[in-house]
């Protein structure tokens, strides 16, 4: 299986997702999308594969979202994609693609839905919240 993560190493959620992928024994292809953004066609295909509307993949916090007026409902999907291409920080993260599908992994545990291999042991998020127990099972609250 090939796992690809569109990753921002400065993002805690993205680091937690990467840890969950690695805890399954996978060595993912890591795309630091701020350094190597997807092409327009790659981004369009990725959004389609995730199955969310374009607005569902836009990130507002810590981005030029407000300054660019991207909350305008009259903006088309093409205009929103153009903004994401011009400002990759607008692409919400992390996005993970596997043979089982693609997801915007917020919260980080969402990645467990599309990993083929089970978790190999206990794992907690960076903030200490347990995600997987010693038996490799998802911890639910």
Could you explain how this protein is built, in words?
The chain is an alpha+beta fold and 141 residues long. It has a single domain, classed as Glutaredoxin. The protein is 23% helix and 15% strand. It is built from 3 helices and 6 strands; from the N terminus they run βαβααββββ. It has a 4-stranded mixed β-sheet, with helices on both faces. A two-stranded antiparallel ribbon has the order 5-6. β3 and β4 form a beta hairpin. The longest helix has 12 residues, at 12-23. The mean pLDDT is 96.
List the helices and strands and how they pair.
Elements: E1 4-7, H1 12-23, E2 29-32, H2 40-50, H3 77-86, E3 95-98, E4 101-104, E5 123-124, E6 130-132
Parallel strand pairs: 1-2
Antiparallel strand pairs: 1-3, 3-4, 5-6
Question: Key features?
Answer:
141 residues, elongated, Glutaredoxin, two-stranded antiparallel sheet, 23% helix, alpha+beta
Q: Counting H and I runs of at least 4 residues, what is the number of helices?
A: 3
Overall 3D shape: elongated
Class computed from helices, strands and strand pairing: alpha+beta
Helix content percent band: 10-25%
Q: How many strand segments?
A: 6
**Global Rg:** 16 Å
The main sheet comes to:
4 strands, mixed
Would you tell me which CATH topology applies?
A: Glutaredoxin
What portion of residues belong to β-strands? 5-15%
Query: What strand line-up does the widest sheet have?
Result: 2-1-3-4
Average pLDDT score = 96
Unreliable stretches:
none
- In CATH terms, the superfamily is Glutaredoxin
Alpha carbon gap, first and last residue: 30 Å
The CATH architecture term is 3-Layer(aba) Sandwich
Strand/helix succession: EHEHHEEEE
Total of domains = 1
CATH class: Alpha Beta
